Amino acid sequence: MSPTDLLHFDLHRFEEARPMLLGLAYRILGSRADAEDAVQDTFLKWQAADRQTIDTPHAWLTTTCTRRCLDLLGNAHRARVDYVGAWLPEPIPTTVVSDAERSMQLADSLSTAFLLLLERLSPKERAAYLLHEIFDTPYAEIASMLELKEPACRKLVSRARANLQAAEARHAPPRERQQALLEAFRLAITEGATAQLANLLSAEVRLSADGGGKVPTLLEPLHGLGEVLAFLVNRLRGYWADYQWFEADINGGRGIVLHQQGNVTAVVTFGFDPSGQVTDIFIMRNPDKLARLTS
Predict the structure, then answer these.
(1) I want to staple 202 with a disulfide (CB 3.0 to 4.6 A). Which of 35, 159, 191, 277 is the partner?
(2) Phi, psi for residue 9 in degrees, rounded to 5
(3) Are 268 and 283 contacting, i.e. CB atoms less than 8 angstroms apart?
(4) pTM (predicted TM-score)
(5) CA 206, 210, 211, 213 torsion-angle sign
């Protein structure tokens, strides 16, 4: 194989791995922008490496990407200490990692609710849990990636599993029920009719909004059916009724994208309990986190 053919072959190997790397990085970091940075850094290291000495390219790429994500996650956590209001993961169209998601049926682990649960974990717990439980990586490989002994990796995953088990958030009701929810939510905002929506919300529903201190929004979550419905009708109705509404697959489920003058101004996603009732309404208003959806 000529040097040119070898280069093309190596580039092809990386491009084959890119969707998985992006999916892993996004789940670890909760930010598409940071995930793309981590994958790009991995690509640059792949280019600079002596690739003929790499026996298992997939494992090498996963290891490099994971370690870069852990570095970025530490910086992100420090930045979130001073974050204004609620922090929510950057919303992404599910189609961004569509090939990987379809092949591994991972869409439920992209939900906003699940990504927020991962925030409870330490960086290494988070990486080990995702690699083993979501991407089916053997413990021996995870130990090598995280530079730990295999028993320590098993303990990380066990601890993470116990931490998340009490509040598992990977429930997704049938698409028809999600569609009915979108229609009921829009009816509540545009017409003030809340009966249909109230039947779909849990009595303990919570509404969280992320403006990042850049646009007006809630600074603290709202709790309870009455408080949430009152906010939707009495506050959001006046602001959102004239926006352009679009339905889309966002973070593995059906969501709402609102436009004003060609720009995305808000994204709404939902969290569910095992019975299909809505436990969380997530509203993204931070323009920095909406920029990619606008573009």
Answers:
(1) 277
(2) -65, -45
(3) yes
(4) 0.87
(5) positive
